[in-house]
């Protein structure tokens, strides 16, 4: 096309069309592969008990795992294993090799990953390897940072007792905690961190398109749990956003676009909206806290919603979080309670986050089940909110770990820790959230969290400047109540008349494209209290 002298923009447009079509094709193949792994997982006990692999091959034959019928993605079961024990598998000849994927070469290990089992079968070597690479390389590739800047100052240790002592007799609403207790992220950015595993919703959308509603809700449940994985060993709190503060995250390499705004100061409310490949996610959140001396209990208030393009909706609320050892001991958090994921069609899900105890040898346990409209439980879930989630057709309520189950199949697994650790214990994904390139800075509104000076100074290791800016902005924050009382309204969200949830009004990305931020307040600038 270049040799023919065609316009560069036309060439890029054609290339994007080809990449989009090929990406869609690869996603279909990947989902087929995942369904095959699900079936192999349910058949794992045949291998563990030393049964003939032809039993499984016969099952695959009857379940349309045929290269000539690759379109029948949703016609085979991914959860039932009983029928395979009842069926006799005939001997396969070498002529069958070109037709069927051979299950004897793959089985699901206890960690849920596929692994080579046999180097050869009765049909010989050279069987088809169904392992497929991630198709994310077909999406736009954007280089993002992998570590935080090196601090410019040496950090000084801060004593919580000295802060309490210095605060005696003072108005506690005017006591400013030093930035030592913060991490260089705002609560708005933490909201996007909950979508680190948004690919689970991409998979849920594809499963629903193929008619597999059960796998859709299982993936949604795994996504709801995955948002807690980043909270492990995070000793510092995020910055409390100012009224009207916003945060955008445009991640085309993930296929998602996220936006959040602080919509109320009293009560403190944050609203968010995210668009993915075939789905939308939104919600608002408020926190109700109780101080118990050595710990703080935080109860989230608000509903999170996922709506797929075919109209299926799932809603849930977060469970209780408790932060332990505030005064003495190592600081850590736990999540406990029951999460109800309610769907508007066939399935709903109930997940129980186990409350920790002193003698508990299996912390962070999550167990649950999927239930249909008739009260049947077609699938069960088990895992840990900081590690992984599995599903099985066996009841998981009586077991303590996934290792005690046969045929459990992996739904989600936590990413590996960052190769460049920080004292904030940020994941590789979290490290990218506050990155500010010159090109991005020119496009952001003056309300974006990346432009908040105290947070930026903290990330750069400029602790004295960060403390001074934090004190200035917290004085400004106290003016927010007056601003709200005088009729201030959120710029990008409005209350839904039906359920009271703040919904995205739209218009942000269009304003960003044209750089129209004239009606956005300079919330981080200087101010007068008069």
TrEMBL record:
Keywords: Coiled coil, Lipid transport, Lipid-binding, Transport. Residues 449-463 have a biased composition (Basic and acidic residues). One of its GO terms (biological process) is lipid transport. Residues 66-79 have a biased composition (Polar residues). GO terms for cellular component: cytosol; membrane. Pfam families: Oxysterol_BP. One of its GO terms (molecular function) is sterol binding. Residues 66-89, 440-463 are annotated as: Disordered. Coiled coil: none annotated. Gene3D superfamilies: 2.40.160.120, 3.30.70.3490. InterPro entries: OSBP_sf, Oxysterol-bd. PANTHER family: OXYSTEROL-BINDING PROTEIN-RELATED, OXYSTEROL-BINDING PROTEIN-RELATED PROTEIN 2B. Belongs to the OSBP family. May be involved in the transport of sterols. This is Oxysterol-binding protein. It comes from Oryza glaberrima.
